[in-house]
Amino acid sequence: MPGAVVVMPTYAEKDTISAMIERILNADPAVDILVVDDNSPDGTGEIVDAIAASNPRVNIMHRPGKNGLGTAYVAGFGWALEQGYDQIIEMDADGSHQPEELPRLLKLLDDGANLGIGARWIPGGETQNWPWYRKLISRSGTTYARIMLSSKLHDITSGYRGFSADTLRALDLSRLDSAGYCFQIELAWLVERSGGVVREFPITFVERLEGQSKMTSGIVVEALAKVTSWGVASRLGRIPKSQALGAPKDATL
User: Fold this and answer.
1) Residues whose CB is less than 8 angstroms from the CB of residue 47 and which lie 6 or more positions away in sequence, other chains included
2) Whole-number Å distance between alpha carbons of 41 and 45
3) 218: which residues sit within 8 A by CB, 6+ positions away?
4) Cα separations (Å) of 191 from 116, 128, 147, 211, 241?
5) Residue 54: in which H helix or E strand, if any?
């Protein structure tokens, strides 16, 4: 089953999930969807079940409970690889990522990128409805990660991204250290350090209008702590470039 699939983790996204699915299906007729639902208490999973029952392009994975964004993506990646998809896309289900920008991301992968990232902090990128302090936190976190990890990426925390299937196969995802939002930083850094081609393109990030953000101060602290530990370990030579964060020795990206 060649082609692309959008993997969307969900937890209590009943207000936005139907519209997001419709927009993704309309954005590219060749793209399928996998929703990874962590037993949402608001019935998100049941809404997707009903859509999937009448549309073969929509699939759902039910997990028993909330177990972190990173583990949801790893589970979704595993399913997508088993199904034989060529390109695997990450996208939030709350409407902050615009499905209409999906064709540009897919083109980056078609043109040979191992990882394509939708970036807010490059020319042409922007955020809408974010207060100044949210922008400050996001930009400061991105700058800190770039410095600590010696990364050239402008938006290493962005969750709007896509991978070639071969890239994910070359990585040992079982050894990733993150379950929460810093999973995004860890995986992008792994691809970058392993020699993969990473391309960024500008996106418009829109603050969610429905539901509540799942970002907490604890998540921010966890990300800062992990980025610091990875950066220090890298500087001390404890993370060889060819085996960054568990990449297999023979990985070719």
Assistant:
1) 14, 17, 18
2) 9
3) none
4) 11, 29, 17, 32, 10
5) helix 44-54
Angle at 214 between CA 58 and CA 101, to 5 degrees: 45
Q: Taking a C-beta distance cutoff of 8 angstroms, is the pair 171, 191 a contact?
A: yes
Contacts of 221 (CB under 8 A, 6+ apart): none
Residues 94-144: pLDDT tens digits? 999 999 999 999 999 999 999 999 999 999 999 998 888 888 888 888 899
Which residues, 6 or more positions from 14, have their beta carbon under 8 angstroms from its beta carbon?
A: 40, 42, 43, 44, 47
Give the other-Cβ count within 10 Å of 127's Cβ. 17
Instruction: Count the residues in the chain.
Output: 253
Residues of the chain with pLDDT under 50: 242-253
Task: Give me the DSSP letters along 151-216.
Answer: ---S-TT-S-EEEEHHHHHHS-GGG---SSTTHHHHHHHHHHHTT--EEEEE-EEE--SSS-----
**Element (DSSP H or E) covering residue 20:** helix 17-27
CB–CB of 141/155 below 8 Å?
no
Structure letter (DSSP) for residue 252 = -
Chain-centroid distance, C-alpha 70: 9
Q: Give the global pTM.
A: 0.88
